Amino acid sequence: MAKTGVQRRGILGGLVLLSIASGLYLGLVQAPPDAYQGELQRIMYLHVPSILTAYLSFLIVFVASCLFLWKRERRDDILAHSAAEIGVLFTGLTIIEGSIWGKSAWGVWWTWDARLTLTAMLFLIFIGYLMLRALIEDKMRAGICGAVLGILGFLDIPLIHLSVYWWRTLHQPPSVLRPDKAPWENVHPSMLLALSANLIAFLLLYFYLLSRRVRIAEMEDELEKAKLYGAT
Amino acid sequence: MRAWDFVFLTYGIVWSAILVYVLRLWRKYRRIKTELALYQSGAQRDSSEERI
């Protein structure tokens, strides 16, 4: 049983490496430069997959937190905690990528634009989530407090997505996820291919990291039980 | 800085950060695995001593 899990993680790891290599090739070599942004557009092949992966991660936090509050099962709490940690990593990377792109395209590293500010808020909420969990020793209490914060934090995501429609922002509206046009009507096929390849790479990487992180948390629980058993 | 410098800076930061996180997870996994094996072998030894 355990061997199957190891094998599965090994196959997923191989797929991750392969997809990252294809994503890098398509994004840095094969995709043409943008008509207006030139080579700078290549940052978007990381920026868009990063934020979509972060959204997925916080969606998992939301669902697992709801399940934990309902059923109080430890595995849901482990999943929420693990997903939140990886979500913070991808949100942080999104902010860095956007900042570097912004410096070159807008001339500033940061501006208090609605979407940027709400994304920074999302990052800070989940940094707070991780800090809160680290501060509370009792696992059940940490799980309950974390679940409440995780659910509230997720509500920021629809605001981030809709902020470009609701307010006059410097950040451009979405090119791929828009209700009025299909992605292939708005983005050149070779660019869409590079974007899709990188998105697949990020999603595979995400599930690989999540499976490792969940396994580590389960082993930490086993170790705690073993220590307790050894002490009594 | 030229456009390519910004692109390489971004790709460098992103993949380095992900690599650091993967290595951190890997080290943590190895440490817990070793510690767990130590405790489990200790528990096995205790139970066999009890039987004797």
Strand content of chain B: under 5%
> What is the terminal-to-terminal distance of chain B?
74 Å
Q: Sheet bearing the most strands of chain B, described? A: none
Number of extended strands of chain A: 0
Q: In terms of per-residue confidence, which ranges of chain B show pLDDT below 50 for 5 or more consecutive residues?
A: none
Strand content of chain A: under 5%
Q: Distance N terminus to C terminus of chain A?
A: 30 Å
Quote the average pLDDT of chain B. Answer: 88
Describe the structure.
The complex is a heterodimer of chains A (232) and B (52). Chain A is an all-alpha fold and 232 residues long. Chain A has one domain (44-175, 183-231). Helices cover 80% and strands 0% of the residues of chain A. Chain A has eight helices and no strands. In chain A, helix 3 packs across helix 5 (139-154) and helix 4 packs antiparallel against helix 5 (139-154). The mean pLDDT of chain A is 91. With 52 residues, chain B is mainly α. Chain B is 94% helix and 0% strand. Chain B is rod-shaped. The A-B interface holds A 24, 28, 38-40, 42-43, 46, 50, 89, 92-93, 96-97, 100-101, 103-104, 205, 209, 212-213, 215-216, 219-220, 222-223, 226-227, 229-230 and B 1, 3-4, 6-7, 9-11, 13-14, 17-18, 21-22, 25-26, 28-29, 32-33, 35-36, 39-40, 42-43.
Question: Secondary-structure blueprint of this entry?
Answer:
The complex is a heterodimer of chains A (232) and B (52).
Chain A: H1 2-30, H2 44-71, H3 74-105, H4 114-135, H5 139-154, H6 156-166, H7 183-186, H8 189-231
Helix pairs in contact in A: 1-8, 2-3, 2-5, 2-8, 3-4, 3-5, 3-8, 4-5, 4-6
Chain B: H1 3-51
List keywords for this structure.
heterodimer; A: 232 residues; mainly alpha; 8 helices; globular; B: 52 residues; 1 helix; 94% helix; 0% strand
Structure in a nutshell:
Chain A has helices at residues 2-30, 44-71, 74-105, 114-135, 139-154, 156-166, 183-186, 189-231. With 232 residues, chain A is mostly helical.
